[in-house]
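Quick one: sequence plus zinc ion SMILES, need structure tokens.
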Amino acid sequence: MAPVGVAIGLPGPVDPRTGLVYAAPNLHGWEGIEAGRLLADRLGCRVAVQNDANLAAFAEWTAGAGRGTRDFVFLTVSTGVGGGLILDGELVTGAAGTAGELGHVPADLDGPPCGQGHAGCLEGIASGTAIAERARAALAAGERSRLAAVGDSLDARDVQAAAEAGDALAGRLFDEAGRALGRAIGGIVNVLSPEVVAIGGGLLGAGELLFTPLRAAIGEIAFAVPLRRCRVVPAALGTDAGLVGATAWAVRRFTAEG
Ligand SMILES: [Zn+2]
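Reply:
Sure thing.
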């Protein structure tokens, strides 16, 4: 028996109305692909296409940290920084379908570029990739750190381990990442006044290394009134969020379509 429908999450900007994948930076050959139509033809059923971070946001809103809210923001911090918005009980996709790219907001006028080449973008400071890149740059500039012993394989986990062991450079990089995330969240609180902001992704393994500066920085930007009505919490669903979100989104989409 063919399924009634399939929902698929893709790592890049998509238009959920048409099923078009604009680009997928980490998937070779996926630019301008009509994924919804191609998959529907092959599978013989309806196919809903969504961005993977939007699906994770929808999952956290449906069954995780944002359950029971009307206005919810999800931020995921790992290799990159992504997110999704639920406003007044609806997943926000915007005119092009691509809304919710919370990793690509300005964070620092003079900051390094993110993976997409935006100078001073949040992802260029706060992603795992950025933390490792900035550690390498500091070492190349002669800064002393136990990270010098790691070599070419250096990644954000090494920086986390060094920070936990008291390394000054590693600690500073997590502090700056946390502060940048906190300020971005403070800005989001001002713009949207969400009830809950949930933060997920691999970098959450760093715990208070990230959360302490993050929480402190929110108040540097956010107005007191919306901040009092907002809880900032870790996401609840872990790596299952994409799968849960795809299922919940499929039910929502195909029920709405009848
Ligand atoms: Zn960017």
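Strands lie at 5-10, 14-15, 20-21, 33-34, 46-51, 72-77, 81-87, 90-91, 196-200, 231-234. The CA atoms of residues 51 and 232 lie 23 Å apart.
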